[in-house]
Specification:
The protein has 258 residues and is an alpha/beta fold. The protein has 7 helices and 9 strands; from the N terminus they run E-H-E-E-E-H-E-E-H-H-E-H-E-H-E-H.
Length: 258
């Protein structure tokens, strides 16, 4: 679970997610670094530094580095949306990463495809115990009872978007500097990385920086679409009505957890 002492960095992929968190923080103040606004405050007695990740691996890596080196965070939680890849991963479901890969990393023939040169690693894995604890907390935060009674989730009307109750998956998330949106690209990813559950553009870069600095991290993604466009949803409405609320509920639960 999250560290009990020290600052916690919360990275949001979407402005709506960041704003929802800031609305709960009673004392946030902004500091600007590397062209970014980092919001320092407290929530549930925890000192938090919240920031927008920016889009793409380099941007997210820069944000992560500043959080660790300048603001001294001792753990990072990253939330956002992603495209679904795995069988049974539906729009509206949530994936907790237990492994992350940069799907566009290819320094072959000098190194095997996907391997990060100089590390001997292709998959980066957060602590198994931490991942299990995070998944349990997320499942509780998004349980049907929370969707009915929780303050954060009471206004989530899944039926209006044609969505089912969220299922929480645990597995591989892949990242790259490409917006994957075609059946052909999706099929190629699934062939190369058959266990991948979701695809996005930042998480594995965040994991690499945290790995280098020895900082624990958590990456959680809400599925906003099937990366092969088999399922369609009103994206702006999904972000406002579902993803933003899920992100806040999950981060809130993680910060409350002992």
């Amino acid at each position: 679970m999250l560290t009990r002492t020290g600052r916690i960095g919360v990275m949001a992929a979407m402005p709506e997610e960041l704003q929802a968190l800031l609305d709960l923080m009673p004392d946030e103040t902004a500091q600007h670094r590397a062209g970014r606004a980092f919001w320092i405050g407290h929530l549930h007695g925890r000192e938090v530094v919240a920031v927008l990740s920016r889009i793409g691996k380099v941007a997210a890596a820069t944000t992560t580095t500043v959080l660790i080196e300048h603001f001294g965070v001792r753990q990072i939680v990253f939330t956002g949306v992603a495209g679904g890849l795995g069988d049974g991963v539906r729009v509206g479901d949530v994936v907790v990463a237990d492994a992350l890969v940069q799907h566009d990393m290819d320094a072959s023939p000098l190194f095997p495809r996907f391997e990060l040169p100089g590390t001997g690693l292709s998959m980066l894995r957060p602590s198994a115990d931490q991942t299990a604890a995070v998944r349990a907390t997320v499942e509780q935060a998004l349980a049907p009872s929370a969707l009915v009674a929780g303050d954060t989730l009471a206004d989530v009307h899944l039926d209006e978007l044609g969505l089912a109750l969220p299922r929480v998956h645990q597995g591989l998330i892949v990242s790259g500097d490409q917006f994957v949106h075609s059946a052909q690209a999706c099929a190629a990813l699934k062939q190369a990385l058959p266990s991948a559950l979701a695809v996005e553009m930042e998480g594995a870069a965040v994991a690499q920086v945290c790995h280098d600095f020895g900082v624990p991290y958590t990456v959680i993604r809400t599925i906003s679409d099937r990366a092969d466009d088999q399922a369609h949803v009103d994206f702006p409405r999904f972000i406002q009505s579902v993803a933003r609320r899920y992100s806040l509920a999950m981060v809130d639960a993680l910060l409350r957890a002992q």
